[in-house]
Amino acid sequence: MGEAVATALNKPASVNQWKLGLVWPDTLDLLSEFDGKRYRLQRRLIGPVYTASNVKRFEGAVDGVVAAAVARLKVIEGCGGGAGTVDLKEWMHIVAVECLGAVVLGWSPGYIKSGSDGGTSKQSYMGWKRKSLFGLFPAVTKVSLLDSGMGKRVGKWLGRFWADAWGVTFATPKGFKPFFTPVYQKVSKRITAALAPSQSAKAKVKKNKSPEVKEDLLTDLIQLHLSRPDEFTDNYLRRMAVTNFGAGHETLCATLTSVLAMIGSHAEVEARCFAEISSCLQGGPHKRRYDLEDVTKLRYTQAAIKEAQRLWPVIGMSLSRTVPEDGCVIGGYSIPAGTTVGCSPLGLHAFNEDVFGVDGLEYRPERWLIEDLERLRAMERSNLIWGGGGRTCPGRYLAEMIVFKVVTALLAEFQVEVVEMPEEGNMECYFMAMMSGVVVRLRERSR
């Protein structure tokens, strides 16, 4: 499966130069892990850290980011009077990275303050263009990974040639401000300090004065390592800490962008969401904080969010699997062992009339509010917005919390009007699919 090879975080431990067989190292790579047993172990280990009840502890960190983003959007040039416009994708990326920074590390990259993500969203998305292209040619990708002798030179040359030939080489833009560099540094520093306490910290413990412990997700991961060091190894710990950002910043950005773009481009949906938020939450329409418990009151808003995710899933290409040794039958067709099969989430969501109806291409939140429980269950089973089966998103509850709190707060504070929406065919979508080029006008409701 070429996409898994192309998206792997690490180079294989060894490559058979004649058969192009790959042997992968024992590390944590939840997206591209080939070893099913290893993957299941890793999911079981991190499971308790990402439960709904545990991530709820970090609700306050997300509230702080949302409040800062709302305040910044109110005073940013052109927005203070309610008539300014912003690039929706960039601002949703700003909010996504800031939320992850606050939850995982108790840290801010300074994107809200500067009003820019330093070009990281555009540059990262171009990286997906390269990965998607190489994923379509697994043999080329495998050759480019050869790491010894003549094979290494050939692989390096072929990788450069293939990228140049298909136009997937990109220069770093001026003013580029990456957030992964400080993330790596802070994660490494925190973990090193936690696993090898300083003498001063030891002295405080002896005096029954415990050193300050930060209440963030990294603390939970460190505690998991300390309690199960032989299973959740130092390598797994460091990988998982950074994976929160690697797996989350673009998926959250894509989700938030599609939700606000779809709601903002359907005036009747936007008005109904605001009315629900205003009437169902204590404190009125300008309540500054929305607790997770409020989610059960906001049925239409939740349906509007889910419907946007259905039409704009973050995975834009086929989710491939290899048919097992016994073969399988799909749609009445017998598929032999070893065959690669898959389906695009959008294809399943929009064109499966038996599940989502003949209007599957339409944005209609009401489809999730029907009383036919059997039909609802069928839609939920076919809805791959969070993955499916054993490959569901491990950070789903954290992502849902962030999406809910960001969307409700922005709709409460601003009327969101889409003023520029490129045709779908003009939006570049790769293995990672994102709405780009969407411009919105934010009208401050209090004005």
Automatic annotation (TrEMBL):
<dbReference type="Pfam" id="PF00067">
    <property type="entry name" value="p450"/>
</dbReference>
<comment type="similarity">
    <text>Belongs to the cytochrome P450 family.</text>
</comment>
<keyword id="KW-0503">Monooxygenase</keyword>
<dbReference type="InterPro" id="IPR050121">
    <property type="entry name" value="Cytochrome_P450_monoxygenase"/>
</dbReference>
<dbReference type="InterPro" id="IPR001128">
    <property type="entry name" value="Cyt_P450"/>
</dbReference>
<keyword id="KW-0479">Metal-binding</keyword>
<protein>
    <recommendedName>
        <fullName>Cytochrome P450 E-class, group I</fullName>
    </recommendedName>
</protein>
<keyword id="KW-0349">Heme</keyword>
<keyword id="KW-0408">Iron</keyword>
<keyword id="KW-0560">Oxidoreductase</keyword>
<dbReference type="InterPro" id="IPR036396">
    <property type="entry name" value="Cyt_P450_sf"/>
</dbReference>
<dbReference type="InterPro" id="IPR002401">
    <property type="entry name" value="Cyt_P450_E_grp-I"/>
</dbReference>
<dbReference type="InterPro" id="IPR017972">
    <property type="entry name" value="Cyt_P450_CS"/>
</dbReference>
